[in-house]
Amino acid sequence: MVHSGTKIKSILFIFLDGVGLGEDDPSRNPFAVAEIPNLIALLGGRRPLAGLPRIESDRAVFIPTDPSLGVPGPPQSATGQAAILTGLNVPALIGKHWGPKPNAAVVEIVKRDNIFKTLGGRAALANAYPERYFAAIRSGRRNYSTVPLAVTSAGLPLFTAADLRAGRAFSADFTGAGWRADLKFTDTPLYTPREAGRKLAASAMERAFTFFEHWLTDYVGHRGTLAEAIRTVETFDAALGGVLEAWDDTRGLTVITSDHGNLEDMSMRHHSLNRVPTLVVGEARAAFAENLTDLTGFVPAIRKALAI
To answer: pLDDT (tens digit, 9 = 90+) per residue, 259-308?
Structure first.
Protein backbone atom coordinates (compact mmCIF):
# COMPACT_ATOMS: atom_id res chain seq x y z
CA MET A 1 0.00 0.00 0.00
CA VAL A 2 0.98 3.65 -0.31
CA HIS A 3 3.03 5.20 2.45
CA SER A 4 1.99 8.77 3.18
CA GLY A 5 5.62 9.88 3.25
CA THR A 6 6.54 8.36 -0.11
CA LYS A 7 8.45 10.86 -2.22
CA ILE A 8 8.62 10.19 -5.94
CA LYS A 9 12.07 10.81 -7.40
CA SER A 10 11.83 8.88 -10.66
CA ILE A 11 9.18 7.75 -13.11
CA LEU A 12 9.89 5.18 -15.81
CA PHE A 13 7.17 5.42 -18.45
CA ILE A 14 7.11 2.36 -20.74
CA PHE A 15 4.95 3.07 -23.77
CA LEU A 16 3.71 0.03 -25.70
CA ASP A 17 2.47 1.10 -29.10
CA GLY A 18 -0.72 -0.62 -30.26
CA VAL A 19 -1.67 -2.88 -27.34
CA GLY A 20 -5.29 -3.27 -26.29
CA LEU A 21 -7.29 -5.58 -24.06
CA GLY A 22 -8.60 -8.32 -26.32
CA GLU A 23 -10.77 -11.39 -25.99
CA ASP A 24 -9.60 -14.62 -24.36
CA ASP A 25 -8.99 -16.28 -27.73
CA PRO A 26 -5.62 -18.03 -28.18
CA SER A 27 -6.18 -18.21 -31.93
CA ARG A 28 -5.86 -14.43 -32.32
CA ASN A 29 -4.77 -12.82 -29.05
CA PRO A 30 -1.14 -13.41 -28.04
CA PHE A 31 -1.88 -12.27 -24.49
CA ALA A 32 -4.28 -15.21 -24.12
CA VAL A 33 -1.56 -17.81 -24.75
CA ALA A 34 1.92 -16.26 -24.30
CA GLU A 35 4.18 -17.09 -21.35
CA ILE A 36 3.90 -13.79 -19.44
CA PRO A 37 4.56 -14.60 -15.76
CA ASN A 38 5.55 -11.05 -14.80
CA LEU A 39 2.42 -9.43 -16.21
CA ILE A 40 0.25 -12.12 -14.67
CA ALA A 41 1.90 -11.60 -11.26
CA LEU A 42 1.29 -7.84 -11.42
CA LEU A 43 -2.35 -8.57 -12.26
CA GLY A 44 -2.85 -10.82 -9.24
CA GLY A 45 -2.79 -14.04 -11.26
CA ARG A 46 -4.88 -12.84 -14.20
CA ARG A 47 -4.08 -12.13 -17.84
CA PRO A 48 -4.50 -8.68 -19.47
CA LEU A 49 -7.73 -9.41 -21.32
CA ALA A 50 -10.99 -7.65 -22.15
CA GLY A 51 -13.35 -7.36 -19.19
CA LEU A 52 -10.60 -7.27 -16.56
CA PRO A 53 -11.68 -4.57 -14.10
CA ARG A 54 -9.57 -2.00 -12.32
CA ILE A 55 -7.62 -3.94 -9.70
CA GLU A 56 -4.78 -3.48 -7.23
CA SER A 57 -2.34 -6.30 -6.58
CA ASP A 58 0.52 -6.50 -4.10
CA ARG A 59 2.69 -4.29 -6.29
CA ALA A 60 0.62 -2.67 -9.04
CA VAL A 61 -2.60 -0.92 -9.97
CA PHE A 62 -4.22 -1.96 -13.23
CA ILE A 63 -6.54 0.43 -15.06
CA PRO A 64 -8.42 -0.48 -18.27
CA THR A 65 -7.91 2.84 -20.01
CA ASP A 66 -10.05 4.63 -22.59
CA PRO A 67 -8.10 5.62 -25.75
CA SER A 68 -11.15 6.81 -27.71
CA LEU A 69 -11.72 9.99 -25.68
CA GLY A 70 -15.29 10.39 -26.88
CA VAL A 71 -14.30 10.68 -30.54
CA PRO A 72 -15.82 8.17 -33.01
CA GLY A 73 -13.66 5.72 -34.92
CA PRO A 74 -10.56 3.69 -34.10
CA PRO A 75 -7.94 5.60 -32.08
CA GLN A 76 -4.73 6.45 -33.92
CA SER A 77 -1.09 6.83 -32.96
CA ALA A 78 -0.45 10.54 -33.47
CA THR A 79 -3.44 11.81 -31.52
CA GLY A 80 -3.29 9.09 -28.88
CA GLN A 81 0.37 9.69 -28.14
CA ALA A 82 -0.23 13.44 -28.14
CA ALA A 83 -2.97 12.98 -25.54
CA ILE A 84 -0.61 10.94 -23.36
CA LEU A 85 2.17 13.54 -23.61
CA THR A 86 0.08 16.73 -23.29
CA GLY A 87 -2.81 15.76 -21.05
CA LEU A 88 -5.19 17.21 -23.64
CA ASN A 89 -7.99 15.53 -25.54
CA VAL A 90 -6.18 15.96 -28.83
CA PRO A 91 -8.64 13.93 -30.97
CA ALA A 92 -11.47 16.17 -29.77
CA LEU A 93 -9.41 19.31 -30.33
CA ILE A 94 -8.73 18.47 -33.98
CA GLY A 95 -12.09 16.76 -34.52
CA LYS A 96 -10.83 13.24 -35.32
CA HIS A 97 -8.35 10.52 -34.57
CA TRP A 98 -5.22 10.90 -36.69
CA GLY A 99 -2.09 8.93 -37.43
CA PRO A 100 0.36 7.46 -37.72
CA LYS A 101 2.41 10.68 -38.03
CA PRO A 102 1.08 13.97 -36.62
CA ASN A 103 -0.59 16.41 -39.00
CA ALA A 104 -0.11 20.18 -38.74
CA ALA A 105 -2.79 20.55 -36.05
CA VAL A 106 -1.26 17.85 -33.85
CA VAL A 107 2.23 19.27 -34.38
CA GLU A 108 1.06 22.67 -33.18
CA ILE A 109 -0.53 21.22 -30.03
CA VAL A 110 2.48 19.08 -29.13
CA LYS A 111 4.96 21.87 -29.75
CA ARG A 112 2.96 24.26 -27.59
CA ASP A 113 3.24 22.15 -24.46
CA ASN A 114 4.08 18.60 -23.43
CA ILE A 115 5.55 16.79 -20.44
CA PHE A 116 9.10 17.00 -21.84
CA LYS A 117 8.82 20.79 -22.09
CA THR A 118 7.52 20.90 -18.53
CA LEU A 119 10.38 18.84 -17.14
CA GLY A 120 13.21 20.04 -19.38
CA GLY A 121 16.55 18.51 -18.47
CA ARG A 122 14.93 16.29 -15.84
CA ALA A 123 13.42 14.17 -18.64
CA ALA A 124 14.73 11.97 -21.45
CA LEU A 125 13.57 9.60 -24.16
CA ALA A 126 15.55 6.39 -23.59
CA ASN A 127 15.42 5.15 -27.21
CA ALA A 128 18.48 5.37 -29.44
CA TYR A 129 18.23 6.39 -33.11
CA PRO A 130 20.72 5.56 -35.91
CA GLU A 131 22.36 8.27 -38.00
CA ARG A 132 20.21 7.37 -41.01
CA TYR A 133 17.15 8.44 -39.02
CA PHE A 134 18.62 11.89 -38.38
CA ALA A 135 19.69 12.16 -42.02
CA ALA A 136 16.15 11.38 -43.18
CA ILE A 137 14.74 14.04 -40.84
CA ARG A 138 17.25 16.64 -42.05
CA SER A 139 16.53 15.89 -45.70
CA GLY A 140 12.75 16.05 -45.26
CA ARG A 141 12.29 12.43 -46.35
CA ARG A 142 10.93 11.66 -42.91
CA ASN A 143 8.89 13.53 -40.31
CA TYR A 144 9.01 13.08 -36.57
CA SER A 145 6.37 10.88 -35.00
CA THR A 146 4.70 12.31 -31.91
CA VAL A 147 7.13 11.14 -29.23
CA PRO A 148 10.40 12.43 -30.77
CA LEU A 149 8.52 15.57 -31.83
CA ALA A 150 7.67 16.25 -28.19
CA VAL A 151 11.26 15.63 -27.11
CA THR A 152 12.88 17.83 -29.74
CA SER A 153 10.30 20.61 -29.28
CA ALA A 154 11.45 20.75 -25.66
CA GLY A 155 15.03 21.35 -26.83
CA LEU A 156 16.13 17.93 -25.62
CA PRO A 157 18.41 15.68 -27.70
CA LEU A 158 17.50 12.33 -29.15
CA PHE A 159 19.97 9.62 -28.22
CA THR A 160 22.27 8.22 -30.90
CA ALA A 161 24.16 5.04 -31.69
CA ALA A 162 27.02 6.37 -29.56
CA ASP A 163 24.66 6.60 -26.60
CA LEU A 164 23.50 3.05 -27.26
CA ARG A 165 27.08 1.77 -27.28
CA ALA A 166 27.78 3.64 -24.04
CA GLY A 167 24.73 2.18 -22.29
CA ARG A 168 22.98 5.56 -22.01
CA ALA A 169 20.22 4.59 -24.45
CA PHE A 170 18.32 1.49 -25.49
CA SER A 171 17.04 -0.29 -28.56
CA ALA A 172 13.28 -0.21 -29.10
CA ASP A 173 13.28 -4.04 -29.10
CA PHE A 174 15.00 -4.08 -25.66
CA THR A 175 17.71 -6.58 -26.63
CA GLY A 176 19.44 -4.67 -29.43
CA ALA A 177 19.02 -7.55 -31.85
CA GLY A 178 17.32 -5.28 -34.39
CA TRP A 179 20.34 -2.99 -34.59
CA ARG A 180 22.45 -5.99 -35.53
CA ALA A 181 20.03 -7.81 -37.87
CA ASP A 182 18.09 -4.96 -39.50
CA LEU A 183 20.40 -1.95 -39.24
CA LYS A 184 23.58 -4.01 -39.79
CA PHE A 185 25.49 -2.62 -36.82
CA THR A 186 28.17 -4.99 -35.61
CA ASP A 187 29.35 -3.23 -32.45
CA THR A 188 26.19 -2.27 -30.57
CA PRO A 189 25.25 -4.07 -27.33
CA LEU A 190 23.24 -7.26 -27.23
CA TYR A 191 21.32 -8.01 -24.04
CA THR A 192 18.94 -10.64 -22.86
CA PRO A 193 15.50 -9.10 -22.28
CA ARG A 194 16.02 -9.38 -18.53
CA GLU A 195 19.41 -7.65 -18.72
CA ALA A 196 17.90 -4.87 -20.84
CA GLY A 197 15.09 -4.38 -18.34
CA ARG A 198 17.50 -4.14 -15.42
CA LYS A 199 19.68 -1.64 -17.26
CA LEU A 200 16.68 0.44 -18.30
CA ALA A 201 15.47 0.60 -14.70
CA ALA A 202 18.89 1.59 -13.42
CA SER A 203 19.19 4.32 -16.05
CA ALA A 204 15.70 5.64 -15.29
CA MET A 205 16.43 6.00 -11.59
CA GLU A 206 19.11 8.56 -12.47
CA ARG A 207 16.56 11.21 -13.53
CA ALA A 208 13.03 12.35 -12.80
CA PHE A 209 11.28 11.10 -15.93
CA THR A 210 12.32 8.52 -18.51
CA PHE A 211 10.11 7.59 -21.46
CA PHE A 212 10.74 4.39 -23.40
CA GLU A 213 8.91 3.72 -26.66
CA HIS A 214 8.39 0.07 -27.60
CA TRP A 215 6.90 0.50 -31.08
CA LEU A 216 7.53 -3.09 -32.14
CA THR A 217 4.19 -4.19 -30.68
CA ASP A 218 2.28 -2.04 -33.19
CA TYR A 219 4.58 -3.02 -36.06
CA VAL A 220 3.98 -6.73 -35.44
CA GLY A 221 0.27 -6.13 -34.96
CA HIS A 222 0.05 -4.60 -38.43
CA ARG A 223 2.43 -6.89 -40.30
CA GLY A 224 3.35 -9.96 -38.29
CA THR A 225 2.04 -13.43 -37.55
CA LEU A 226 0.49 -14.71 -34.35
CA ALA A 227 3.73 -16.55 -33.58
CA GLU A 228 5.70 -13.30 -33.96
CA ALA A 229 3.18 -11.51 -31.76
CA ILE A 230 3.58 -14.15 -29.05
CA ARG A 231 7.38 -13.82 -29.18
CA THR A 232 7.10 -10.04 -28.98
CA VAL A 233 4.83 -10.23 -25.94
CA GLU A 234 7.08 -12.77 -24.23
CA THR A 235 10.17 -10.63 -24.88
CA PHE A 236 8.42 -7.63 -23.34
CA ASP A 237 7.39 -9.67 -20.31
CA ALA A 238 10.94 -10.88 -19.79
CA ALA A 239 12.24 -7.31 -20.04
CA LEU A 240 9.55 -6.24 -17.59
CA GLY A 241 10.84 -8.89 -15.22
CA GLY A 242 14.26 -7.24 -15.33
CA VAL A 243 12.73 -3.82 -14.69
CA LEU A 244 10.80 -5.15 -11.70
CA GLU A 245 13.92 -6.80 -10.25
CA ALA A 246 15.95 -3.60 -10.43
CA TRP A 247 13.27 -1.00 -9.70
CA ASP A 248 13.04 0.62 -6.27
CA ASP A 249 9.33 0.91 -5.44
CA THR A 250 10.05 3.17 -2.49
CA ARG A 251 11.46 5.99 -4.60
CA GLY A 252 9.69 5.82 -7.93
CA LEU A 253 6.98 4.54 -10.23
CA THR A 254 6.99 2.41 -13.34
CA VAL A 255 4.05 3.24 -15.61
CA ILE A 256 3.05 1.11 -18.60
CA THR A 257 0.35 2.03 -21.12
CA SER A 258 -0.58 2.17 -24.80
CA ASP A 259 -2.24 4.52 -27.29
CA HIS A 260 -4.68 2.16 -29.02
CA GLY A 261 -5.44 -1.50 -29.57
CA ASN A 262 -3.93 -3.63 -32.35
CA LEU A 263 -1.65 -6.48 -31.26
CA GLU A 264 -4.38 -8.11 -29.15
CA ASP A 265 -6.31 -9.18 -32.27
CA MET A 266 -4.07 -10.72 -34.92
CA SER A 267 -7.08 -11.63 -37.07
CA MET A 268 -7.11 -8.05 -38.40
CA ARG A 269 -4.51 -5.51 -39.52
CA HIS A 270 -6.05 -2.29 -38.23
CA HIS A 271 -6.56 -0.63 -34.86
CA SER A 272 -9.26 -1.84 -32.52
CA LEU A 273 -11.78 -0.02 -30.34
CA ASN A 274 -10.59 -1.87 -27.24
CA ARG A 275 -9.48 -0.22 -24.06
CA VAL A 276 -5.74 -0.28 -23.42
CA PRO A 277 -3.95 -1.65 -20.35
CA THR A 278 -2.33 0.69 -17.86
CA LEU A 279 -0.15 -0.60 -15.04
CA VAL A 280 1.34 1.55 -12.29
CA VAL A 281 4.03 -0.08 -10.13
CA GLY A 282 5.45 1.40 -6.93
CA GLU A 283 4.48 2.42 -3.42
CA ALA A 284 2.78 5.62 -4.61
CA ARG A 285 0.76 3.79 -7.26
CA ALA A 286 -2.70 4.40 -5.80
CA ALA A 287 -2.22 8.17 -5.63
CA PHE A 288 -0.88 8.26 -9.18
CA ALA A 289 -3.77 6.19 -10.54
CA GLU A 290 -6.51 7.88 -8.52
CA ASN A 291 -8.04 9.93 -11.35
CA LEU A 292 -6.65 7.94 -14.26
CA THR A 293 -9.35 6.70 -16.63
CA ASP A 294 -8.22 7.76 -20.12
CA LEU A 295 -5.15 8.91 -22.02
CA THR A 296 -5.44 12.51 -20.81
CA GLY A 297 -4.78 11.49 -17.21
CA PHE A 298 -1.06 10.80 -17.36
CA VAL A 299 0.35 14.32 -17.49
CA PRO A 300 -1.66 15.55 -14.48
CA ALA A 301 -0.63 12.44 -12.54
CA ILE A 302 3.05 12.90 -13.46
CA ARG A 303 2.98 16.55 -12.48
CA LYS A 304 1.38 15.72 -9.13
CA ALA A 305 3.74 12.83 -8.43
CA LEU A 306 6.84 14.92 -9.15
CA ALA A 307 5.40 17.93 -7.27
CA ILE A 308 5.42 20.24 -10.27
So the answer is: 999 999 999 999 999 999 999 999 999 999 999 999 999 999 999 999 98
CATH number of the domain that 285 lies in?
A: 3.40.720.10
> How many domains does the chain contain in total?
1
Handedness of CA 204, 162, 137, 190 (dihedral sign): negative
Domain of 175, in residue numbers: 10-209+220-305
In a domain, 214, yes or no: no
Per the domain annotation, does 215 fall within a domain?
Answer: no
Q: Is residue 245 part of a domain?
A: yes
pTM of the complete model: 0.96
For residue 4, is it within any domain?
Answer: no
